């Protein structure tokens, strides 16, 4: 199987081995033209179908289908399921109703970010954690054992796809009927597409109108994929890989890339709001309340780089300089077709974190480019789009 780079100049053979997981949609992604894969949560993640700019416009203008089976679902259940789930996160889950979803931070004892899943409350004592790249089920098992909780931590056969873009809503109406109209942003619906059981959440990694469809019968992955593609044909649906420009425009972060276990939520622009004051004694509470009082020394903020598009996305963190002195690091930088400039994220000392601070990015080999810090999100700070007008 051949893979193309973004510049379409290098041909690489891909080898698939049994030591990594394959989603129920894996063969469908190959059939529909995926030609490069990443490894994420021990699973193959589609990384490239077509020119990334073409995929971006398909997402922004029409509707797209993503294989995101790599969002490993951890289920917490049992008599103490609520206590275990509430102990893992700085979100106050007493404010999360059955059927609701929350963007949650899983915290370490020192307040560090272990993971940032979307959490779905399936019943009073049952929760799904839909994970970024980390073995959080082991962390949860250890916490349950250490605290003597009567809770079960399991990896159910649940595999999501995302349907994202402005035409996602009419497509979902065609697939499941008017029941989808009652699903509010960050809420869920148990339904069938034909006779294929799915759990639908109104969430996504795009900042667009979007839905995640959690397949609960992995034997029917190919059937679900083709059903969505047929129904989406009138809306010009196409499968794409996760869209870096759109998620950065929306101020969405990539766990273990933009931040790691060494960082706490107060250091990441926008995540401060997730550290909710509450009575429960979750893991890392004392550390995070101390940070709340004392403040932080560094911050992850937006970065804008005027000029021509980068030849390719940066593949590793790059130094950020002020006056020739390294002060931080750039974690992401990519061309935004709508903003017509390069945008990304940069870690800087707190005194340099205000929007408009001039700095240079060191691309190596003596190549420097001047940019400035920026507020995030870059587009649609009020989230009107995903809340949105239905088209």
Defining traits:
391 residues, alpha+beta, Gyrase A, domain 2, Alpha-Beta Plaits, Elongation Factor Tu (Ef-tu), domain 3, 9 helices, 19% helix, disordered N terminus
Protein architecture, described:
By secondary structure, this protein is α+β, with helices and mostly antiparallel strands. The chain has three domains: 2-71 and 157-247, Probable tRNA modification gtpase trme, domain 1 (Gyrase A, domain 2, 2-Layer Sandwich), CATH 3.30.1360; 74-153, Aminomethyltransferase beta-barrel domains (Alpha-Beta Plaits); 252-374, Beta Barrel (Elongation Factor Tu (Ef-tu), domain 3), CATH 2.40.30.110. It has helices at residues 26-31, 52-61, 81-88, 136-146, 168-176, 221-232, 244-249, 285-294, 384-387; strands at residues 2-4, 11-13, 36-40, 43-48, 64-67, 73-77, 101-103, 106-107, 113-115, 118-123, 126-130, 152-154, 159-164, 188-193, 196-201, 210-215, 238-239, 298-305, 318-322, 325-336, 341-349, 358-362, 368-374. The strands form six sheets. It has a six-stranded mixed sheet with strand order 14-15-16-13-5-17. A six-stranded antiparallel barrel has the order 18-21-20-19-22-23. The protein has a five-stranded antiparallel sheet with strand order 7-10-11-6-12. The longest helix is centred in the middle third of the chain and has 12 residues, at 221-232. The protein is globular. Mean pLDDT is 94; it is low at 1-9.
